[in-house]
Amino acid sequence: MELPFAESWKIKMVEPIRKSTRAEREQWIKEAYYNVFQLKADQVYIDLITDSGTGSMTDRQWSEMMLGDESYAGATSFFKMKDMVTKITGFEYVLPTHQGRAAENVVFSFLVKEGDRVPGNSHFDTTKGHIESRKAFAIDCTIDEAKDTQLEIPFKGNVDVAKLEKELIENGDKVPFIIVTVTNNTAGGQPVSMQNLKEVRELSKKYNKRVIFDSARFAENAYFIKTREEGYANKTIKEICLEMFSYADGMTMSAKKDAIVNMGGFFATHVEEWYEQAKIKGIIYEGYVTYGGMNGRDMNALAVGLDENTEFENLETRIKQVEYLARLLDEYGIPYQRPAGGHAIFVDAPKVLTHVPKEEFPAQTLTVELYLEAGIRGCEIGYLLADRDPVTRQNRFNGLDLLRLAIPRRVYTDNHMAVVAAALKNVYDRRETITRGVEIAWEAPIMRHFTVKLNRLK
Ligand code: F0G
To answer: For residue 277, what pLDDT is reported?
Structure first.
């Protein structure tokens, strides 16, 4: 008989988790103003709020932590990290930052000015925040197909090159660079094809613009290229990564995802003048150029994490777990952004809670219901996270309204996934009884979802 698929690792250390009662959760979520970011982590049983900084490191990564060089300047740990980044991306200039948004802050500080327009596929919320807080505009040129959650296409994260070219023709003088997010988190952890990266590169050359990859999940993107795109089945993940980055001029990286560390990030580029400017901003905001907000030990772990997570077996283990959860949801008929993404399942909340009007935030309502059901914490990637339009101050209801179940790397087993699916099924089975959602009691002017206070409507 053919042997079944199994993880490419075994477990050496475990962390106990705790269940709670529904009465406890009712109290806790009320105290958290129906905002799961305000919960204490020990009030959560299975935590799928993010896959960022929540992964388990390998024994090799932990052993490298003991070898960290904590020298202020010129630490060997920096060179270990830099050499690995260069090996995997081809970029020779590497500036560490404490996480991904810090790299965005450093780079956008010298590249983005008031009135600029930064086109790309869906911008992640911190990316959008760093653009909009500089009174510039994030122009979303994702393909329209990404908005149809039930449509199954292999590269739903792609840039619509016609939309991008229109933007470059009409507003080219205001475009400081093009940004491509791999994988496209906001559209559902959906990958961008190599073909699409090439097409964006050609346009960038035609209009004399540079390209930055927001690379948080670039290795997962490479996995999808290998398994879905013609011509890549026999290439290694590392070969695919090198080709991907050959179509960019620089990258911002949240190492908390695909480098599987708990904290860390960097900016890397082949453009010397960018690096020179980034160093100045990096020193002000992050720290000296050979540590930039990171410990030496963390840079060591990051280097190993990058190396290990650009190997096929590790990515396959991870993505097959996401697919396993998707298969269970298929069995129960629960609609989500198809096909399953690289790091998460995104449940299509308005298709589940059909009686909750958009003004009452269906995805946030579903997030609260899932927490109440079983202590499972997902998070809303929808109308709350979309913030208000900076000009009109109206809620942005034109995108998707999703409940994201982000799966930490190498943390939960498939049994946990089965619990998540069953809890969601229980909510789904009583969906007709859920007719009211939530309303905003207080919100911050930007990136409101982290701190928003909500009332639950009855
Ligand atoms: N870019 C993307 C595509 C991201 O998903 C994130 C973070 C960042 C940039 C910012 O990186 O957190 O290290 O500052 N995403 C996390 C998430 C928070 O839950 O999706 P960071």
So the answer is: 98
What's the pLDDT band for 355 if we cut at 50, 70, 90?
A: very high
Work out the pLDDT band at 458, boundaries 50, 70, 90. confident
Distance CA 275, CA 95 (A): 8
CA distance 60 to 305: 9
> Are 193 and 229 spatial neighbours (Cβ–Cβ below 8 Å)?
yes
Q: What is the CA radius of gyration of the chain?
A: 21
Q: Note the helical H segments in 112-217.
A: 125-132, 161-171, 194-206
Order of strands across the sheet that contains 402-406: 344-348, 402-406, 379-381
Q: Which of 47, 124, 213 to mutate to test the pocket of ligand 1 (most atoms within 8 A of CB)?
A: 124
Share of the chain above pLDDT 90, in %: 97
Phi-psi category of residue 293: left, alpha or beta, with phi > 0 → left and psi -120 to 50 → alpha: left
CA dihedral of 234, 240, 246, 248, whole degrees rounded to 10: 140
How far apart, in whole angstroms, are the C-alpha atoms of residue 284 and residue 264?
17
Q: What is the pTM of this model?
A: 0.97
pLDDT for the residue numbered 9: 97
Per-residue pLDDT reduced to its tens digit, 223-247: 999 999 999 999 999 999 999 999 9
CA–chain centroid gap for 314, Å, is: 18
198, amino acid identity: K
- Our answer to whether residue 257 is catalytic in this structure is yes
Closest CA to 248 of 187, 216, 205: 205
Average pLDDT score over residue span 86-113: 98
Our answer on whether the CB atom of 294 is closer than 6 Å to any ligand 1 atom is no
**Which pLDDT does position 352 carry in this prediction?**
98
Q: Which of 47, 51, 116, 125 is catalytic?
A: 125
Out of 97, 126, 221, mutate this one to test ligand 1's pocket (max ligand atoms within 8 Å of CB): namely 126
Task: Say how far apart CA 190 and CA 182 lie, in whole Å.
Answer: 8
CA atoms within 13 A on the CB side of 363: 23
